[in-house]
């Protein structure tokens, strides 16, 4: 190999000058060093919610069911602002979107807001709904893998359990272990985020990656059973404890923006109406959303709607806060995160908005 | 280099060129680092000056510090070993299958009709579209993951090797006939070496395909591997871990490509082409 | 003595084009025959039929060639991924094969180049390796298809001398296909010419030793041959 003198290609000097100049400019105009990203809006969290929505406000909402109900009833046209609906549901996806600043309002069970807070995204719950009969109705049940040899919760000892710390499924697992007096260190928790369709957990059970996994008590559990029962798959209810909270939650940046805060107030009012409507029209919901939008067969759609309700929007959040606190208390040691006061997660300015709407009826 | 060649080199540079050189000349290997180097430079400056929100894209040195943390925790090595193992297994199976099928298809007319026809059809279906079926047939365990990777590897290797086999110089085939070589001698001395360059090209594409497939399968239903690590990081909004995962994938891809190119240079030392 | 090569009624055609139209040819053991003809006269077809690699052609006729037949082509056809010695002994078995290969290379003047790669050799050197490869098998018949056509004049002269020397030493029957009239006269014991798919001319050659007579002889033979070539249709 010849060793000719290394000649700089044409244009090198020009490039070097450009690089130096551009870097100098960047340094000169460097923005103030950002530490914590403080909410840039003008509205403090304690101030009363504004009533007027200025023009041009857009609220990005990830709640497909509400989206359908709003559209079906024409409510989206009545709003003095625009909603940009996002096809994002479930804790993990919502957290990711919030982290990227791509979402103003998310929906999920009670754990995602806790998880978001622990992940460094300050959020507030602005709406809460629960089962009318939380004592006797469970939102989650356990799927048991075909050859796991599990007859009761006591048999969980030493088994592999699917665990998703950012979702309520994790709380269900931990509460079950506590009720059965099994130390979490006596089981193998397999960290595996679940998906909204339930695919991930049912596949994991069927492929013998885990022995136990929490499944949605409606369609997901029913399908798991119908697909794999002949292989020996079964379902196992969890011990009696509450597992039914569903929330709408927002990042604090949304609340700090006065335009968005005002829009949110109106949105939550309609959200309350939507909950009452869904309760009163289960069949319409089944056909219009789960069949027409999600493509499910009608019997499946009805089953899923039945599993989601009947629900209610409580006017007081005391129970909700207590429930949330119990979630924080049981998840914190397992995930190595600090315990904090659950009340911090709730923006009580919204406490009665949805409930009044649901009780009152029309817009 | 001796004094004479130095003098010659000196004289060569003293001459002013009489005709303008239009072609680019042989690139220096170090020169290829300029682009990535500039990228790294601007990235660092943007991070240091605060233009870049660390939650959206962490500074490059964060990748290092996070990687060190992960190594301390053992998570990086654990997941890396699993990922590399899957990729290696998939690559091995896919390459063996690809070569075997290419040989059968290249050396037998009937084989060519059957196999080549099937391959050309399957070529049009992206592997990622087959994944839902792979899940149904193979579950979500290691078997499925390695199979998906092997399938991604199989196609470029088969296609390149088969193509090289078809292009085997007819004159060499005639030579084999005149020398009355046995079928085995023919395959060993003429077919295989003739197909080797094509196979190695296919191997380079196959390695790329392996990493691509690996990334995908590790984000679905995985409980180990770099992709799993990144999925968890997405859940916890840990952009720095996500970055480490990306860098690891990049290094693996780049590294495997470099290894194959090294093999190419050794195995094809007899070639005297312009690229050397 | 029975002929080394015996061809009777050889017919070859490709789709619509008839190329060989009933060729009869005998070559005695140790005889050096040169085959002349215009381009397209079927010289290569005949040779390929003798080698037995004309799978694409149709036709008929009888061909007998000896068991040990070697071939050299116009291009040396060395396998680029094998070193010179490996090329020479390709396909041979036996304990002393490599030693024989070395000797063959030495005979062709390439002693010491056993470990070179083919691409490091010049055209003439590559053709010498091909010769060594052909001769190491101790052929009873050597078929050569315009082996020196691609070489420059000076190299060609050297190759002629080499071929003559080797044929004296090893004494195979040789069929040399060439378009070079002078080459044919210089090397062959006998010259045959293909004309309209058959062998037209069949002329024994006896080169006189003394220089002036040799010049005249060569000149008159050349004239005859060229006239014959000229007369046959394209």
- The name CATH uses for the topology of one domain in chain C is Rossmann fold
What spatial form of chain A do the alpha-carbon principal axes imply?
A: globular
* Share of β-strand residues of chain C: 25-35%
Order of helices and strands of chain A: HEHHEHEHEEEHEHEHEEHHHHEHH
Q: Radius of gyration of chain A in whole Å, from Cα? A: 25 Å
Distance between the termini of chain C: 37 Å
User: pLDDT under 50 segments of chain A (min length 5)?
Assistant: 33-37
Number-wise, the strands of chain A total: 11
Q: What this model shows, in words?
A:
The complex is a heterotrimer of chains A (363), B (276) and C (234). Chain A has 363 residues and is an alpha/beta fold. Chain A is 42% helix and 14% strand. In chain A, the strands form three sheets. Chain A has a six-stranded mixed β-sheet, with helices on both faces. In chain A, strands 8-5-9 form a three-stranded antiparallel β-sheet, with helices on both faces. A two-stranded parallel sheet of chain A has the order 6-7. In chain A, helix 6 links the parallel strand 6 (160-163) and strand 7. Chain A is globular and about 75 Å long. The termini of chain A are far apart. In chain A, 43% of the residues are buried. Mean pLDDT of chain A is 88; it is low at 33-37. Chain B is an all-alpha fold. Chain B has one domain (59-267): MetI-like (MetI-like fold, Orthogonal Bundle). Helix content of chain B is 77%, strand content 0%. Chain B has helices at residues 3-14, 34-49, 60-73, 75-107, 109-123, 127-138, 142-166, 170-178, 183-219, 226-235, 239-267. With 234 residues, chain C is of the alpha/beta class. Chain C has a domain at 5-68 and 139-231: P-loop containing nucleotide triphosphate hydrolases (Rossmann fold, 3-Layer(aba) Sandwich). Chain C starts with a strand and ends with a helix. Chains in contact: A-B, B-C. Chains A and B meet through helix 1, helix 4 and helix 7 of A and helix 2 and helix 10 of B.
